[in-house]
């Protein structure tokens, strides 16, 4: 029987240890195909059994929290290393302690836990400053013991500075970060490093576009982008520089992958994991939708048998330097949502 590789982890500000590769559950929100909940739970157990024990979800990801709750119950006493990271994404409006606590309690109930490992807060409109009210209440709820790590998702550096300046310690910010979208390197990384904040990176594989499947192929038509992820990240690629430049990037990454006997996804993932400010990457999983299991390939992304060389990084950067500046196009991280 082959030995299962050990999944490395990162310890966050308040002691929570999360896998370097986190299983993303946006795909069970309904925008990526019909979900079979029991099939999803079986797949989650398969991932957890080989070391992929951290799961990222949100209260707005359809049944994601409920599916995680069923998964938790299915584990029985075998909860070693299981982590459930969720997001609170309220409608913009009044944020009373009662309302905020009710949302926290609802997530705990759905996830079948008595404490949230990590609560990542999102706010749609910066012009409405009541996100500060919500964060202050969440901080109090954290002190009460219901939240381990208090975090953000898709917040800009400027607003993070404001939140931290109001005495609210933040553990992580979840942002889009990939070979195509390097906006976190502009301002956010420096601020996070100074304030002991880590980043969770999503969109690392551009919804699957950063893979051999799309190397050397014609630009896909809109009707061929059959999932929300493919449509979203194809739009990002268009803003970044277009399909021809993306093909140039894919070819460079493919050459690097062949040099190290790994996949394009491995190189794309490793590039982001090597950023000092990144705690973990979030790789989407189509639990309950598709039978594909990417654990073996994902383990190659964190293998110590290979690493990106200075020459590898230089060839990647040469292509990136030809692209448009997404920071100027979209604004800081999360700007595309506001």
Automatic annotation (TrEMBL):
Domain of life: Eukaryota
Coiled coil regions in record: none
Species assigned in the record: Phallusia mammillata
InterPro entries to which the protein is assigned, alphabetical: AKR, NAD(P)_OxRdtase_dom_sf, NADP_OxRdtase_dom
All copies of domain NADP-dependent oxidoreductase, residue ranges: 20-319
This protein's encoding gene: Akr1c21
Residues passing through the membrane, by range: none
Name this protein carries in UniProt: Aldo-keto reductase family 1, member C21
Molecular function terms from GO: oxidoreductase activity
